[in-house]
Structure prediction request, 437 residues.
Amino acid sequence: MNFLQNKQGRNKVTGCCRIDGSHRLVPIMKTCIGGSEKAIERLIRNGGLFHFGMIAILDFVFWIGTIPRIVKKEGDIMGNAKQLNEISWKKFNELPLVKKGEYFLESPHHTLIAQQFSREQLENLCMLATKIRRISKRRSGANFLRTLLSDKRAMLYFAQPSSRTYLSFKSACETLGLNTIDVRDSKTSSEVKGESPEDTVRTFCSYADMIIMRHPTGGFAERVAWMLSNTNRPIPVLNAGSGADQHPTQALLDIYTLERSFEQDGGIDGKSVVFVGDLARGRTVRSLAWLLTLYNNVKVYFVAPEQLQINKDVLELLDAAGMEYEVTQDFVDVMPKADAIYMTRIQDEWDIDGESTTIDTSAFCINKEHLEILKKTAVIMHPLPRRKEISVDVDSDVRAIFWRQVRNGMWARAALILATFGREDEVNAYFAKNNLA
Ligand code: NCD
Prediction:
């Protein structure tokens, strides 16, 4: 028997193996009753019922002895692998973010929150993104990539305005030959007929092998992942932006952009990253700030008007992770310290009564004059869309990398999708075989 220990600590039988073991009986009997191996073999061959009984008893005793070891060994693997179908929604929903992340390590590989990533996973995804990018440069490579997921279909469900994230995912899917279907407006779905959002999504999932979704309700992607994991069609869910809380794939592409920018300069470790703008309601900042805690000696500055400053819950997470940060309103003061400046727009779609129109945001913009005081090696990023927070004449500066960031998004998302389906080995093999390093 093969015993695996599930997370409640119960043993469950997951398969059978032969209780035969005559190959191991000879040494055991040698130990137990003495005599040469040959003599024992003869005993086994010639022995009557008595000997057979002895053998069976000894084998049983030996097998019983191995159970604790099997349980421990398999338990070590399974002990960390928390499954969404083993916890109620209520309990799961109440977990702190870092604990929730532990539920997304196993198949199906949902990508829902920044807190589920390890640094090693990020580094692997960045390497995979680079391989996909390089392979796609040649027609033969692009054709090869298009075979990788040609047996799969993705549902793009965008119930919130989106053009770049939608197109980024769609292009990533096309790069890998993954067919897509989409719903971009929940008014065109049966939700208007009174269907619950859960039923709507479950219907969509019947047509697809993966759902990539953006939704105005914070936590809804998690709810969908939990719901699907408790059905017989548990397809992976990729969160393409949920409410004002999480945007894990934007954070992933931001990490990829930072990695590429500091490739020749020791990587992300030890860098200073300055977040500017509407930090209270910007989900990209919330997700990226967490991912930066996975790197060594990164210092973060949060620069915003008081009403739009980063929320306490994010700072608590950073405190727990031991990250150094400063909260300030003085953008010009921190500009020269920045290795990366991450600009964001005012997220006024979350205003209740036009309150952001009363806030003076003029000191939270970057223009050509500011470029003078920036480090020569600094980079200026933006998840886009931008408004006035970066003046257009900054675009031509080599440090303005937000357009490259958009393109990086496509590669990072292609890498994530491929890894979600566990097909990255084929890319690695192709890359090595064609000497593309
Ligand atoms: C961001 C988003 O939707 O949160 N955009 C994006 O995904 N590229 C940022 C924003 O809308 O300001």
About this structure: The pocket of N-carbamoyl-L-aspartate is lined by residues 164-165, 241, 247, 250, 283-284, 344-345, 383-384 (CB under 6 Å). DSSP finds 16 helices and eleven strands in the chain.
